[in-house]
Amino acid sequence: MCCEAARILQSADQTVDPCSDFFEFACGQWNREHPIPDEQAKYDVFSMLTDGLQDRLKSESYTSATFGGGTVSASVCLFVRRMSQKAVFGFS
User: Fold this and answer.
1) Euclidean distance between CA atoms 16 and 49, whole angstroms
2) How far is CA 67 from the centre of its chain?
3) pLDDT in tens, 13-42
4) Helical H segments across 1-92, by residue range
5) CA neighbor of 89 nearest in space, from 40, 44, 23, 56
6) In terms of Cα–Cα distance, which of 45, 48, 36, 9 is closest to 25?
7) Based on the domain organization, do 67 and 87 belong to the same domain?
8) pTM above 0.85, yes or no
9) Residue 44, phi then psi, degrees to nearest 5
10) Which domain holds residue 68?
């Protein structure tokens, strides 16, 4: 619980008065540390995690995975993950 609270406090801009600009107080630091990439319309924690997963899948150590006794390429794993996101969360 304390780790989650610390993570939330790291995202906050404690120099801003929450009564005058609550959004900037709650999200200001996170927005400065994670600007929206030019090629995306939004950037949130899910986007950040997806980007990290894609980077890992592109690396040599994640080029294939074992599934059902066979080897599956990283692109298949990524495709299955994206389809799961669409089905569960409605992500595209």
Assistant:
1) 28
2) 25
3) 889 999 999 999 988 998 898 888 888 888
4) 2-11, 22-33, 45-58, 74-89
5) 44
6) 9
7) yes
8) no
9) -135, -170
10) 40-92
